Amino acid sequence: MPPSTTPPRPLPPCSILLLAGGQGQRMGGQDKGLLSWRGKPLVETLHALVRPLTDDLIISCNRNQARYQPYADRLVGDAEPGFHGPLAGIRAALPMARHDFLLVLPCDVPQLDRQLCDDLRRQAAEHPGQPVMVREGEHWQPLLCIIPTCHAALLEAAWQRGERSPRRALQPLRPVALQCAEGDPRLANLNTPELLRQADPAPDH
């Protein structure tokens, strides 16, 4: 008889947060989630990837809410005026997430794939209570992570202490690394007009 194998653990349900609330400084003040990439807004590309993975899709945005609404089940904005960085969006979304995990993705990484999202969820199931964070080579990518929503109060406390770095705010929870190779094309952060153009060349005529 063939040796018995343990069936893979089912992936845990998760809420998903797309971060689109920034000031767009590297984009000349433009709302980067709405910039075109391969003929579609960046947020539409991410929406197509993650929509099948959740019944609780949240977008963090501080402007153009009417344009983002069709891509989300719910929208969140920063609780305080101004642009306070991605931790503000994570802070707003964690308490309202409907599932035990919140998968966090920035809207300017359009080459992500289903495998990476599933790997984050799988690691979360194997390390209950700890965030899982992508590490590219030796560099952590704190905006590509999955966070147990039970830690909403801890992140709120970090915020109230003046912390604005997602990496430092999550550090006390001993994040688990989802290791990726240096230069993994899925992780390319298209956060300047030049990078966006390079990744989306004009078609030949």
Strand content: 15-25%
Binned, the helix content reads 25-40%
Overall average pLDDT: 88
Number of helices: 7
Main sheet, how many strands, which sense, barrel? 7 strands, mixed
Instruction: Please report the distance between the alpha carbons of the first and last residues.
Output: 61 Å
Give the count of structural domains. Answer: 1
Choose one word for the global shape: globular
- CATH class membership: Alpha Beta
What is the strand arrangement across the widest sheet?
Answer: 5-4-1-6-8-7-9
Label the structural class.
Answer: alpha/beta
CATH superfamily: Spore Coat Polysaccharide Biosynthesis Protein SpsA, Chain A
- Tally of strands: 9
CATH 2nd-level architecture: Alpha-Beta Complex
Task: Summarize the structure in words.
With 205 residues, the chain is α/β, with parallel strands linked by helices. The protein has a single domain, classed as Alpha-Beta Complex (Spore Coat Polysaccharide Biosynthesis Protein SpsA, Chain A). The protein is 27% helix and 20% strand. It has 7 helices and 9 strands. The protein has helices spanning 42-50, 65-68, 86-93, 114-126, 152-160, 166-170, 193-199; strands at 15-19, 36-37, 40-41, 57-60, 74-76, 101-106, 132-136, 139-148, 176-180. The strands form 2 sheets. The chain has a 7-stranded mixed sheet with strand order 5-4-1-6-8-7-9, with helices on both faces. A two-stranded antiparallel ribbon has the order 2-3. The N and C termini lie far apart (61 Å).
